[in-house]
Design a protein that fits this description.
The complex is a heterotrimer of chains A (282), B (352) and C (266). Chain B is α+β, with helices and mostly antiparallel strands. Chain B has helices at 44-52, 94-104, 109-122, 138-150, 168-185, 196-202, 220-225, 230-235, and strands at 6-15, 18-28, 33-37, 59-64, 67-68, 79-82, 156-160, 188-193, 205-210, 213-218, 240-249, 254-258, 263-266, 277-282, 288-303, 307-314, 318-325, 336-340, 347-350. Chain C has one domain (56-256): Orthogonal Bundle (MetI-like fold), CATH 1.10.3720. Chain C has helices at residues 7-30, 47-54, 56-88, 92-107, 110-123, 130-154, 158-166, 171-200, 203-208, 216-226, 231-256. The two termini of chain C are 36 Å apart. Classes of the chains: A mainly alpha (282), B alpha+beta (352), C mainly alpha (266).
Chain lengths: 282, 352, 266
């Protein structure tokens, strides 16, 4: 009876374990292995002589710029999401319960639309003579056509647009726990609104902010579709370079090396923010 | 003589470092109301779950109604359980909850209908068959749990502190109902609780457990008046504990010398020898106010209505508790009194 | 709504919400805009919708997407449910490995893992196509499904399964009669979510699809690349309606159906 129980439990773990090992762990290991290989671009023969050439090639300005741009854009988009998302999360968390739900629906539903549709919609928005251009022209912010499409700025806007709800939600959850009475008590003890914010609201919201930054920042670094559509071939991020190397150029070892670098970046970010994403209970 | 309802031999269980049950031998006779009592963590629930088949013992054998079930999984044992949280299936109504076990036995539909109907009537829930568990009160849920377990006519019914979540009045009412049902149905009930009074009021026999060990087992009166260990003496009721040494025998059983040098007669278990260190146990209700006996000063008095509870300080013998009838007295703080007791009410327990 | 006290954040919130909805509104408006250049309003028309629905590429894409999404969802649910059932009785170290693998599959940029699978499949001479796409989707779909089902299994009362076993149900019957009904809302939500993620996916599909049978998102992607036609807006709105509905139903299943089973205490 004892061993039969154990056998049954083991059988339950099998599907997940087998699938994850076969189609997740093994491929990732393979990528790491291939990043040390060499390919002949004439014969497309791959030889394993364990060299760091691929990693050295990343230092080539062409690719290194892209690396830097990916990191910069991802940081920029994260900051953008934070600047826009925090006030929104704060505002929602201070509303009565029913209004909170209504507002959350407004924030989440765009996220539920198809990802490609959203990105395409951003293209429409940022067109040279599109509605945003009309708006800015009317406000006399710009005089000519809006030249923002297919620039890094457009890609950043696109990322912010797609990932904003992911920033709003964890911050909202953290802020929602802060009782209005707590803030009133702080004010009662003599703290001005700015000090209440700095000494009470902000520290309690920090875990939510950290979580939001991680779930926006990390996927943003590996984005492919947004720079593809909004960058129009001119602005490339790591995701595009990897895709390019694999599917167009055929330099698989090099593509693998870049993928490994991306994984390393992700690991660094995760480890660095581990301290902040731990939530206070009670 | 028929086989005992449950027989445990050498049954033990540990969880990691913690030994929940030391090798245990226990026989539960057929047909009565049996309780296992003890403080939290004493191993009574673990023992119950091993009988049910929900935990596997690390050693020993378990027999139910004469058959070895040690290797039998829970769903094949002739044992059913009433759980502490009732564990009613929330997605089924009362009728389907009670019928659950019968459906597993693949009984024909009209037999299920008849038996479920009888059982629902027995626990006085007629008319609530279509209700969901969350629509019922705690007491009603408990009765559904009872009906659900009983309808399968198990050889043994196990109850794991089923009345814990109910208020005092409801608990007392359900205690008498449970006792009633057991007498009517005739199935062996094995009841686990930490409440000594509850167990005593319902049981034919009681087993006291402490830290995984069975301390004593027997009819409630025996366990109360003749505890075999200090732990049992103090768990089943208030007890005055006087250090003593055996110095001889007497009509009551033994003669002992107390800390103040005086001797007293007392009853005790067989096998005590002169010189043995013992504790003399006298229950507060057996103390009498009188002219001869132990002199003491009253430190505190509480009037409880039917009784008066005294805390006194006796010279040389230390603090004592006494419970006297409410109409005896009056007694006030600071009074000098003498306490005495009959040797038949004094019991010796081997010192720890 | 409390606006006065929080007028600054309220203003920012309004701007952000407009920012979130404006592009979608534009797509919606343009989907019925007669003017094919979409520079200004040309009158109301449903012709773009007719064009979209009758476009053979779109129809084929939709069919392919449905097959992929349905299969991946079923596989993902099977993996998620078995995994969560194991997780309940697992030790804390095994649990941490399991959870780590789940989060890793979600956090890892899709591009990395899609290229990895692409590499393995091509080197192993495994044919790229619908099968490969399904395998790829299931890797991260099963992670999302696991998270949702796990939240529910964590709150399942183990006493219920003890009771079922006690009353004579063998492990399979316990699962069927007690565990599964309790898990049902979570399984439904996880299934709808997995289906929608699969339906919507670009990166993994793009790498593993090969040349035949593109799914709908890949079709849309190539249409956007070549700026083929304003019917993209119509397709976009139709897809949007579909995904929003799926998510909405999943959300209701999760929040409405009574998350807790411990409510029945007096």
């Amino acid at each position: 009876m004892l061993s039969r129980d154990r056998l049954l439990r083991g059988a339950l773990a099998l599907p997940t374990a087998a699938y994850v090992v076969a189609f997740f762990i093994v491929p990732l290991v393979v990528i790491v292995v291939y990043s040390f290989a060499r390919v002949s671009l004439v014969t497309f023969n791959i030889s394993f002589d364990w060299n760091l050439d691929n990693y050295r090639q990343i230092h080539d300005p062409l690719y290194f710029d892209t690396l830097v741009r990916s990191v910069v854009l991802s940081i920029g988009a994260t900051v953008g999401c934070l600047l826009l998302g925090f006030p929104l999360a704060y505002f929602i968390s201070r509303q009565p319960r029913t209004w909170q739900r209504v507002l959350l629906v407004f924030v989440i539903v765009p996220f539920w639309t198809s990802f490609i549709v959203r990105t395409y919609a951003t293209v429409n928005l940022l067109e040279e003579h599109g509605p945003l251009a009309d708006l800015l022209q009317t406000l006399h912010v710009i005089s000519g056509p809006l030249m923002i499409l297919y620039t890094p700025r457009a890609v950043a806007i696109g990322i912010i647009y797609s990932y904003l709800p992911l920033m709003v939600l964890p911050i909202y959850v953290a802020l929602e726990r802060i009782d209005d009475e707590l803030l009133a008590a702080a004010a009662d003890l003599g703290a001005s609104p700015q000090r209440v914010f700095r000494r009470v609201t902000l520290p309690l919201a920090l875990p939510g902010v950290a979580v939001g930054c991680v779930i926006v920042g990390i996927p943003a670094m590996g984005e492919y579709v947004i720079p593809e559509i909004l960058g129009g071939g001119k602005t490339l991020m790591l995701g595009n370079v990897i895709t390019d190397q694999f599917l167009t150029v055929g330099n698989i070892p090099f593509g693998s090396a870049i993928a490994v670098v991306l994984m390393a970046l992700m690991a660094v970010v995760l480890l660095a923010t581990r301290r902040f994403t731990r939530v206070e209970t009670g | 003589m028929s086989a005992p309802a449950v027989r445990l031999q050498g049954v033990s269980k540990r969880f990691g470092e913690h030994i929940a049950v030391q090798p245990l031998d226990l026989e539960i006779p057929e047909g009565g109301f049996y309780s296992i009592i003890g403080p939290s963590g004493c191993g009574k629930t673990t023992t119950l779950r091993m009988v049910a088949g929900l935990e596997t013992p690390d050693s020993g054998t378990i027999e139910v109604a004469g058959g070895d079930v040690t290797r039998t999984p829970a769903y094949r044992r002739p044992v059913n359980t009433v759980f502490q949280s009732y564990a009613l299936f929330p997605h089924l109504d009362v009728y389907e909850n009670v019928a659950f076990g019968l459906r597993e036995e693949k009984r024909p539909k009209d037999e299920i209908g008849r038996r479920v109907g009888e059982m629902i009537e027995l626990v006085r829930l007629t008319g609530r068959e279509r209700s969901r568990p969350k629509q019922l009160s705690g007491g009603q849920q408990q009765r559904v749990a009872l009906a659900r377990a009983l309808v399968k006519h198990p050889a043994v019914l196990l109850l794991d502190e089923p009345l814990g979540a109910l208020d005092l009045r409801l608990r007392k009412q359900l205690q008498s109902e449970l006792k009633d049902v057991q007498r009517r149905v005739g199935i062996t009930f094995v009841y686990v609780t930490h409440d000594q009074e509850e167990a005593f009021s319902m049981s034919d026999r009681v087993a006291v457990m402490n830290e995984g060990v069975l301390e004593q087992e027997g009819p409630p009166e025996t366990v109360y008046r003749r505890p075999s260990t200090l732990f049992v003496a103090e768990f089943v009721g208030m007890a005055n504990r006087l250090a003593a040494r055996v110095v001889g025998t007497s009509a009551a059983g033994y003669a002992v010398r107390l800390a103040d040098g005086s001797t007293a007669d007392a009853a005790g278990p067989d096998g005590l020898a002169d010189g043995d260190e013992v504790s003399l146990i006298v229950r507060p209700e057996n103390m009498r106010l009188g002219d001869a006996g132990v002199p003491a000063v009253v430190r505190a008095v509480s009037y409880l209505g039917p009784s008066r509870s005294l805390r006194v300080e006796a010279e040389h013998l230390g603090p004592l508790a006494a419970t006297i009838p409410g109409n005896a007295g009056p007694v006030a703080e600071g009074d000098r009194i003498t306490l005495s007791w009959s040797p038949a009410d004094a019991w010796l327990v081997r010192a720890a | 709504m409390r606006i006065r006290r929080h007028w600054f954040t309220g203003l920012v919130s309004l701007a952000v919400i407009v920012f979130l909805w404006a592009p979608l509104a534009i797509v919606a408006v343009n989907s019925v805009n007669k003017n094919p250049l979409l520079v200004r309003w040309g009158g109301f028309t449903t012709s773009w919708y007719h064009q979209a629905i009758s476009n053979p590429d779109v129809r084929a894409g939709l069919r392919a997407t449905m097959v992929v999404a349905a299969t991946s969802t079923l596989l993902s649910l099977a993996i998620a449910v078995t995994g969560c059932l194991w997780w309940r009785r697992a030790g804390s170290r095994s649990r941490r490995v399991f959870d780590g693998m789940t989060y890793l599959r979600i956090m890892l940029p899709e591009v990395v893992f899609a290229t990895a699978l692409f590499l393995v499949f091509t080197r192993a001479h495994f044919q790229l196509g619908t099968g490969a796409v399904i395998i790829g989707h299931t890797v991260w779909n099963s992670a999302y499904a696991t998270l949702i089902v796990q939240a529910r299994t964590a709150s399942l009362d183990p006493a219920l399964e003890d009771a079922a076993a006690d009353l004579g149900a063998n492990p399979w019957r316990v699962f069927r009669r007690v565990t599964l009904p309790s898990l049902f809302p979570a399984i439904l939500a996880a299934g709808l979510l997995a289906f929608t993620f699969s339906f919507d996916d670009v990166v993994t599909t793009y790498f593993l699809n090969g040349t035949a049978n593109p799914t709908l998102p890949v079709v849309i992607l190539s249409m956007i690349r070549f700026r083929v036609s304003p019917e993209i807006n119509a397709i976009g709105i139709l897809v949007m309606l579909f995904t929003v509905t799926m998510f909405a139903v999943a959300f209701l299943a999760v929040s409405g159906a009574g998350w807790s089973t411990r409510r029945s205490r007096a």
